[in-house]
Write a structure and sequence with these properties.
The structure is a single chain. By secondary structure, the chain is an alpha+beta fold. Among the domains are: about 100 residues, Double Stranded RNA Binding Domain (2-Layer Sandwich), CATH 3.30.160.60; about 80 residues, Phosphorylase Kinase, domain 1 (2-Layer Sandwich); about 180 residues, Transferase(Phosphotransferase) domain 1 (Transferase(Phosphotransferase), domain 1, Orthogonal Bundle), CATH 1.10.510.10. The protein is built from 14 helices and 16 strands. The strands form 6 sheets. Strands 6-7-8-10-9 form a 5-stranded antiparallel beta sheet. A 3-stranded antiparallel beta sheet has the order 4-3-5. Strands 1-2 form a two-stranded antiparallel sheet. A hairpin with a 3-residue loop joins strand 6 and strand 7. The radius of gyration is 53 Å and the shape is elongated. About 10% of the residues have low confidence.
Length: about 525
């Protein structure tokens, strides 16, 4: 099948043929050649050839005209061949009739091929158009996405610049009062140093120190502390100056007869921001886990060959929050407060504290040992009151005073811990914020109604702590939900009197739960009352 003539199936012979069937003498282009083969049109070639110039076609065996068509062998036969033994059992058809049937079949298949080819051309055109539309749509979408991305990036860049500018302004506003406060503190420290030098000069002089200090206290210093603009915002320095003068007066009065004046010893009640050592993590040896908390874990460990408690930050709080707790502990030094030894500022932030070998007060009470229970009740209550008196004098509130936050040293002496919520009062009250997780069973009723906390709220918590002590660590309002506890407090219902609680202790306990905070005792009064009961 080869040739260069036009395709017989293309209209007007517009396409050159690539193949020509030598049997049917039909020329095909590449597009129409495949249907010609697939529909097996070659099977009809013998018929076409047989009907073409029949007069010239004779049987080569008998020289007779080919009149029949053998359907089995698919070839024309003469009459003699059809009667032969070889072909007798085959089905024979008149040659003209077979040719007509084959031609009808060929024409039907040709029409089918033409129709199929037309449909294929239409589908090809449709697909080509769809492909073009898809390409155009993809280009438009890509262009729109690029523009949207550029606009979003420009907006983000502008917003980032705005936020950075706001942060810089906010930082400047926050730093301004700090700088002013620092200047005032520096001025106050200079004033404190001047007063110290004056006192030292007084001690070395021959002037009557008692008269001079009384005059200094009653006139100049007192006036300066109350009205002097340099000290109006420096409460710590004011209090420190007053205490220096008061301690000096007390010491001078005690030795006035023999005219001998000695420097008074420092008290643990002074709040002097201590220089807390910052040490690397490598200086610690972390040992077994003692307590798992929500935001910190406490381990036993070694620091400078000393057994210590190591408090390590977990997820939920920042390094700065834990370090701020450490700075508060470092500023509050007292025998009845847990002591901070050092801090680790690198992440995770860590506090190094003295180790309390006998655990917390709640675990001690739950042992219910008759050999040591009654012996320590009053002593422990008085020691806690002593530590809280110090916090009260320093203008601090604890907000979480309960038996679980009281630790016991080797001699079962009480030390107040749990400094996570300790706050320094800016005025008389602390405004409770949404993030403060306060223990409802130990909270004063006004903490739920007015959302403020004062030192008298700590007095309320101390009354609940006394209830814990005299009930061997029983949970306050046991069996009640926090919501039910709040409703009971608003209705004026208080905790019952423990069966083993003495009358005098119960009076202290009940006075802590007065509705009016002003009628509740302060910790100085409660410490005096409990100490007198111990001596009685």
């Amino acid at each position: 099948m080869e040739g260069t003539v036009p395709c017989d199936y293309c209209l007007g012979g517009s396409t050159a043929a690539v193949k020509t069937c030598l049997t049917c003498l039909t020329s095909f282009c590449e597009e129409h050649l495949r249907p010609h083969k697939e529909l097996a049109l070659l099977r009809a070639h013998q018929l076409i050839e047989a009907t073409r110039n029949v007069a010239e076609k004779l049987c080569p065996a008998h020289s007779r005209v080919l009149d029949f068509f053998c359907e089995r062998e698919q070839r024309p036969l003469c009459h003699e061949c059809s009667l032969s033994t070889e072909h007798r059992m085959h089905r024979h058809t008149a040659l003209e009739e077979a040719c007509r049937a084959k031609r009808v079949l060929v024409e039907a298949r040709v029409r089918l091929v033409d129709n199929t080819s037309g449909l294929l051309q239409q589908e090809t055109a449709t697909l080509s158009e769809d492909h073009t539309n898809i390409v155009n749509l993809s280009e438009r979408c890509s262009s729109q996405l690029s523009r949207a991305f550029e606009e979003a990036r420009a907006k983000l860049s502008r917003r980032e610049e705005e936020v950075m500018e706001e942060l810089r302004n906010e930082a400047q506003r926050a730093l301004s009062p700090i700088e002013v406060s620092m200047e005032e503190h520096v001025s106050g420290i200079a004033r404190l140093s001047s007063v110290k030098d004056s006192l030292q000069a007084l001690l070395a002089s021959e002037v009557d120190p008692v008269s001079f200090l009384k005059m200094l206290k009653d006139q100049d210093l007192n006036e300066n502390l109350q009205t002097g603009s340099a000290f109006r915002r420096s409460e710590n320095i004011d209090n420190a100056l007053r205490r220096i003068v008061e301690r000096a007066l007390a010491s001078l009065n005690s030795v006035a007869e023999d005219r001998t004046i000695s420097t008074p010893p420092s008290s643990t009640s002074d709040v002097t921001p201590a220089l807390i050592p910052m040490v690397p993590q490598t200086s610690l040896t972390v040992q077994d886990l003692v307590k798992i908390g929500a935001f910190t874990d406490i381990h036993r460990g070694l620091y400078e060959n000393r057994q210590v408690a190591i408090k390590i930050r977990k997820d939920g709080i920042t390094n700065e929050q834990l370090l701020e707790e450490g700075r508060m502990m470092g500023a509050l030094r007292h025998d009845r407060l847990l002591a901070l030894l050092a801090m680790v500022s690198e992440s995770p932030a860590t506090l190094i504290m003295e180790f309390m070998s006998n655990g917390n007060l709640l675990a001690f009470l739950e042992k219910k040992s008759s050999s040591n229970r009654d012996r320590y009740y009053l002593k422990m209550a008085a020691e806690v009151a002593e530590g809280m008196r110090f916090l009260e004098e320093e203008g601090c509130v604890h907000l979480d005073l309960r038996a679980a936050n009281i630790l016991l040293d080797d001699g079962f002496g009480c030390k107040i811990a749990g400094f996570q919520l300790v706050r320094k009062l800016a005025g008389e009250v602390y405004q409770i914020s949404e993030g403060d997780m306060l223990p409802a069973r130990w909270c004063a009723v006004e903490a739920f109604t007015t959302k403020v906390w004062t030192s008298k709220c700590d007095s309320w918590s101390f009354g609940v702590l006394l209830f814990e002590i005299y009930t061997d660590g029983t949970l306050p309002y046991k069996g009640k939900t926090h919501r039910e506890v709040v409703e009971l407090l608003k209705q004026g219902i208080r905790l019952p009197r423990p069966s083993v609680c003495p009358d005098a202790v119960h009076r202290v306990m009940s006075s802590c739960w007065h509705e009016d905070p002003l009628t509740r005792p302060n910790f100085g009064e409660m410490y005096t009352s409990l100490s007198s009961l111990i001596r009685a």
